[in-house]
User: What shape does this take?
Amino acid sequence: MNTFTVPATRAAGLARLAQFAPQAGRHYAAERNADHGPGRHDRVSGLSPWLRHRLLTEDEVLRRVLAQHSQDAAAKFIEEVFWRGYFKGYLESHPSIWNDYRRTVVTLLTQRSRDSDLAQAYAQAVDGATGVDCFDAWVAELKNTGYLHNHARMWFASIWIFTLQLPWQLGADFTYRHFIDGDAAANTLGWRWVAGLHTRGKHYLAQADNIARYTGGRFAPQGLVLRAPPLSELTAHPLVPLALTLKPPRGPVALLLTDEDGLPETLGLEPTQVVAVAGAAAFQGRSPLHVGPLLAQFSRGALQDALLRASAHFSAPSTLLAGLDGDAIAEWAARTGVQTIVTAAPAAGPVQEMLADARDWLSMRNLRLVTLNRRYDAAVWPLATQGYSALRNQIPALIERLALESGRPEQGTLL
Ligand SMILES: Cc1cc2nc3c(=O)[nH]c(=O)nc-3n(C[C@H](O)[C@H](O)[C@H](O)COP(=O)(O)OP(=O)(O)OC[C@H]3O[C@@H](n4cnc5c(N)ncnc54)[C@H](O)[C@@H]3O)c2cc1C
Assistant: This one.
């Protein structure tokens, strides 16, 4: 699939889901590791850009797949979808990982101006001029389509870290600012997983024969490092309790949309309580460097699509804001005449940072910002405190509690 040619609308996401769902069973499990190259990623769902912008939600994707397959047959696909919630919950409850990463990216980008070896090696990598055939091809694919197959992401990160010996944070910044599905949690923790920092001491070393096999012989990479210790770090990342809000406020509210969540119709707000809708794209917050044009285009489109649907659903006027800063939000909210602004709670990442900055500014102007969590996140995130297997063991119980199998009524409270 060439993600670039697919429109950033919920309708396009639903169409892709309908097309993929019949393959989400044993066919996906058997075929998912093969990377057939740009425009030919048809053995995997290609749903990540829509899931990332929440034009589709995880629970509706799982529900659709479970309407066509047994849990057993679709086990692999279901696990992959839960990896997303696992990483989101893990980063949310270990915020120092994100904060360290953000600081280190700035430090390393500055360091390039003093360290010519680093500058040269970095430029070769991001220009796709390393001489490692597959790596250089993936740089071109990433820039041309905004997407890489999961296996290619693992090989790419591994070659960046262990063969090119570049800092993992610069690689994570590079992919984060080009992936259309670029996600603070999946990207940062995906890189840390490859490096051996997530499952401490267990790293992923890309091997030439494995790459040749799963790319149908398209590549024969030379000079890959065969042995290297996993990365290590001195910093401990303490677990911080989650703060989740599930109950929508009462009374009239102004609804704020961001490129984190494009499905405000299902946030639990009454259609009559929303008096106005506004949205702002925050994709430039992903990196101190410019982000790729394809992701900017997708994020803008996703926001526009969400604004149109929200305006129709809530019968409320919609506005596009220049940014997510306190001033822009306060000025708009003042015009709506309400004092409560509601937005879908952003997980750790740039939007969360921007809204944290805006919140104090808003409260000085007697405006309250309520961030609403989704029931799916409230069920999954608390299980993401350790390794993935603890969450994986809970998947059948989560499917039951979230009523993801057709016809099952939802069970009890989730917190
Ligand atoms: C170094 C590295 C960086 C990554 N960065 C991102 C990123 O920025 N954004 C992102 O969405 N995924 C990221 N991933 C995870 C994964 O590669 C992509 O989600 C997947 O390739 C998207 O293609 P797909 O929709 O066809 O996936 P499918 O195989 O069809 O999976 C279905 C869905 O499950 C979720 N999913 C699958 N695998 C993972 C995973 N390992 N972690 C989290 N969610 C997963 C995605 O939402 C995906 O759309 C990264 C993986 C690695 C190794």
In short: The radius of gyration is 21 Å. The chain has a mean pLDDT of 95.
